[in-house]
Design a protein that fits this description.
9 helices, seven-stranded mixed β-sheet
């Protein structure tokens, strides 16, 4: 594992004694994302997670009955995720793989997703990665942080996009947009806390979807059936 990602996941609590507390917080934060997955395909649908990290989301989806495979380019993270899956008794499959070449996974899944991964690449590369993911499943779900992430930590090489910009990238990857939404209440300042308290939930969710959230996500659908060249 690179020093950067070790420090990042260590900060998230992935390797400490309180890792389960951190995992529960992670599951709660991504509840809207998981709900989108469940609304699009019922278990035991097959799901591919590109850039699985410690594998927390995959364990959650596995517990909901999905057939989940998580992949990462870091061997130590893959091994860590495998140990967690074994500890929980989950059948989640974790493999070492390259997001730029997903040929072994083409045509094998119902949905593919990535959380906090593609914002680390430039715009055209992100589009190319989405095209590669679309060869694996007819549904592609991408989640990235927004500019409000600056409240939780320093923004480094992350590319910050608006929901509209992210939708355009999904379309350029030859996918049709099925859903675009934001989630994660922004309550870092006193005015933001009062905004959350005073606004009706429906209005606040509308603001989420406009980008007033810690994360934005777009669900794309492949326009045509993928036919493997082999």
């Amino acid at each position: 594992m690179t020093d950067r990602w070790r420090k990042y996941f260590n900060k998230q609590g992935a390797f400490g004694l309180d890792w389960l507390t951190a995992a529960v917080a992670h599951w709660g934060f991504h509840e809207v994302l998981y709900g989108t997955v469940q609304g699009q395909c019922a278990p035991p649908a097959s799901i591919l997670d590109v850039g699985c990290g410690p594998g927390w989301s995959d364990l959650y989806l596995s517990s909901a009955g999905y057939d989940v495979t998580g992949i990462d380019c870091d061997a130590s993270l893959v091994e860590h995720a495998r140990k967690l899956a074994k500890r929980f008794g989950m059948p989640t499959n974790y493999e070492l793989a390259d997001a730029f070449d997903l040929a072994p996974y083409h045509g094998r899944f119902d949905l593919v997703y990535s959380c906090g991964v593609l914002e680390h690449f430039d715009r055209q590369m992100t589009i190319d990665l989405l095209k590669e993911q679309a060869k694996c499943a007819p549904l592609v779900l991408i989640q990235i942080p927004t500019r409000f992430t600056a409240y939780t930590g320093k923004i480094t090489d992350e590319r910050i996009y608006t929901p509209k910009e992210l939708r355009h990238m999904v379309v350029e990857a030859d996918l049709s947009v099925k859903a675009c939404f934001g989630y994660g209440d922004v309550t870092a300042t006193r005015s933001q806390v009062w905004l959350r308290r005073l606004l009706p939930r429906a209005v606040y969710r509308y603001l989420h979807n406009l980008g007033f959230a810690y994360s934005i996500a777009v669900l794309g659908e492949r326009k045509s059936r993928f036919i493997s060249p082999s």
